[in-house]
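Weekly structure sync, notes
Attendees: PL (lead), two postdocs, one rotation student
Agenda item 3: pending single-chain targets
PL asked that the sequence for the first pending target be pasted directly into the notes so everyone works from the same version. It is reproduced below exactly as submitted, 166 residues in total.
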Amino acid sequence: MPLRPAIARDTDFLWRVLLEAYNWNGEQRFTLEQLVADPYAARYLVGWPRRGDFGVVDETDAGEPVGAAWARCLPEDEPGYGFVAPDVPELTLGVLPGQRGRGHGRALMEALIRAAGERPASVDRLSLSVEDGNPAVRLYTSLGFTRVGRNGGSETMLLDVRTPNP
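Predicted structure, written out during the meeting:
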């Protein structure tokens, strides 16, 4: 599972991953066109990468991307679903359906958490939003994320990057 930093030319793949994250339960609840047109969804990727954005892409040995995780700070007047504060990047994680359950999600999350701590302006905390019923909550909890709030039918979770994982 080769991992590498996410860069500008990954934008189309990141949109695909965002779509998978929105359609996490296997149902086609959203289309890519709907996400691009939705101001809440689009704020996770429009202009990628902006200053302060960081992420990782997981690839097969043949160089085919299978998943990605990235983080972006969002302003208080344009929060994401897992917004905590303007200085807390909100992360997005997604793995293509045929690749789930093989450790890609954990590898991506661990790499993103490491990247947060290694940034020139170190990131102290990361947040995310996870819908009720999404089995990824077990991964997030195992990595040290804790529930800090709710937004509709989703939990907002937070990780202190400076605290060692359990």
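Discussion points:
- The longest helix spans residues 104-118.
- Residues 3-160 form a domain with the Aminopeptidase fold (CATH 3.40.630.30).
Action: rotation student to compare against the earlier draft before next sync.
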